[in-house]
Amino acid sequence: MTKQLLLLLTITFMLFSCGTKNSIVSNEKIESWDRFHYPEIHFVNKAIDTEGASIYERIVPDPQQLIRVSILGVVKTLYWSLEDSIPAIRKINYTIEDVKGISAKGGGVPEISIFYSSRWVEQSAKKGGDDKVLYETAGVLYHELTHGFQLEPQGIGSYGTNKIFFTFIEGMADAVRAHNGYFPATNRKPGGHWLDGYQTTGFFLEWLTTKDNDFLRKFNQSTLEVIPWSFDGAIKHVLGEQHSIETLWNEYQNYLTNINA
Ligand SMILES: [Zn+2]
User: Fold this and answer.
1) How far is the CA of 67 from the centre of ligand 1 (A)?
2) Residue 115 burial (CB < 10 Å; 0-12/13-18/19+)?
């Protein structure tokens, strides 16, 4: 065997080994979500005999399964892998209730409670039938489950005392919902302010994934790294010092105005 041939074989073997190693690494990443520790789900229909609850039961025959699938969708949007700091939610109490409003999450690690209004189910059914109910139910679930699994800003007070904190929490919940396709595209309109929270902030944060595919994961993670947390500080931390929340918001507004023109 010539020296050249030996060298060629060695290089080929090294390239082959690298390729094999990479595919093992990516397989491990995929497998890692298989080992995700799902919380115990305790489902109770407290609105028996309402029209909304019977629509829900017909359209969602297996609530635990819908909740589990939605949990995985949420954690995959917010985190890269099981190695990340995912809040250890171990139990979710999910109830259908005959009350005003849409849905809300209470509690925190390790046990949260989420109610969903049977009246809201009835309204959705009137608007768009079964398809609308399922789409709305999953979308609302994505929003509330994000509250269970998202990280929270540090060093700036709390949800009830600080607008920035509130905006991050509600903006991220709607960003995760939007990113998974659970808002009609027509909901995204120019106007408002990035501090408004909910969809106004949520669609903006979701649009920032066009700057960095991992934007939502990195923005969630920024709460562990930018202390005290701020929107502008987190934007600079994730996308670079050359950016600011104001210039990106203005760019986003111009983009929305142009596509709607
Ligand atoms: Zn919320």
Assistant:
1) 17
2) buried
Q: How far is the CA of 127 from the centre of ligand 1 (A)?
A: 22
**Single-letter residue type at 131:** D
Residue-wise pLDDT tens digits, 95-116: 999 999 999 999 999 999 999 9
**Which pairing describes strands 111-117 and 103-108: parallel, antiparallel, or unpaired?**
antiparallel
What is the identity of the amino acid at 111? E
Residue pLDDT, tens place only, 196-238: 999 999 999 999 999 999 999 999 999 999 999 999 999 999 9
CATH among 3.30.460, 2.60.40, 3.40.390, 2.40.50 for 37-149: 3.40.390
How far away, in angstroms, is 143 Cα from ligand 1 center? Answer: 6
Burial of 85 (0-12, 13-18, 19+ CB in 10 A): exposed
Ligand 1 centre to CA of 202 (Å) is 11
The structure's pTM equals 0.88
How far is residue 175's CA from residue 199's CA, in Å, rounded to a whole number? Answer: 7
Query: How high is the pLDDT of residue 246?
Result: 98
Query: 5 CA distance to ligand 1 centroid (A)?
Result: 64
Distance CA 208, CA 195 (A): 15
